[in-house]
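Technical annex, item 7. During the second reporting period the consortium partners agreed on a shared format for inverse folding records so that results from different sites could be compared directly. Each record opens with the tokenized structure and is followed by the designed sequence. A conforming record, contributed by the partner at site C, is shown below for reference.
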């Protein structure tokens, strides 16, 4: 789920406003993902969006608010899309769906994924309010996986590490897109279905389940 760009209170609805806000958002994602919060400037965001700096500040409250909103977009997207319900009883079906959705989100939103990764590389100074929410969300998945293990539906494994392995494999194709393209020798779209199938089979087999 994508939230609107943080807008200054004085901004009012007018023709073209949605288009301008979308251009600002797209420009900000590129700048922040490439340069991080400290390295990005409102001047560069304005130029990329086709605006002057005063025009940009008519539509946004400031660089910090814009960055925080984009971080919330990433975290909301992960929370809303990658849901594992505690009542799920078929681990194979859940893992297949989870990996598919994770790969799709990473490849459909590569700049947002890299923005989050860049924030982590910078030490995560803007993620203080995120960690408690992330830990709580992850714990629900851990509890479910551990129940599956206890019921004999999965081989004995570390549920937390399993989740992190899935995150690492699926986000790799967004965060290391250049290396992926060089290694796979592709210049157009990545072979998404092949990527999903290989990751899924690795995870399923590692969990003691039948592959696709």
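Designed sequence (site C submission):
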């Amino acid at each position: 789920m994508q939230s609107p760009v943080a807008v200054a209170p004085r901004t009012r609805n007018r023709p073209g406003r949605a288009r301008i806000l979308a251009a600002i958002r797209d420009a900000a994602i590129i700048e922040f993902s490439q340069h991080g919060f400290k390295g990005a400037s409102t001047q560069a965001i304005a130029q990329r969006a086709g605006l002057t700096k005063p025009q940009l500040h008519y539509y946004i409250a400031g660089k910090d608010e814009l960055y925080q909103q984009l971080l919330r977009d990433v975290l909301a997207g992960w929370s809303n899309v990658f849901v594992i319900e505690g009542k799920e009883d078929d681990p194979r079906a859940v893992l297949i769906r989870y990996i598919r959705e994770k790969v799709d989100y990473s490849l459909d939103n590569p700049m947002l994924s890299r923005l989050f990764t860049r924030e982590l590389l910078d030490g995560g100074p803007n993620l203080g309010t995120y960690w408690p929410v992330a830990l709580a969300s992850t714990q629900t998945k851990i509890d479910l996986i551990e129940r599956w293990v206890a019921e004999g539906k999965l081989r004995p494994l570390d549920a937390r590490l399993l989740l992190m392995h899935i995150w690492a494999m699926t986000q790799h194709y967004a965060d290391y897109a250049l290396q992926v393209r060089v290694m796979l020798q592709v210049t157009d779209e990545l072979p998404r279905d092949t990527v999903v199938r290989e990751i899924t089979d690795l995870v399923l087999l590692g969990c003691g389940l039948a592959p696709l």
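The chain has two domains: 1-81, 85-206. The chain is about 70% helix and 0% strand. All partners now use this format for quarterly exchanges.
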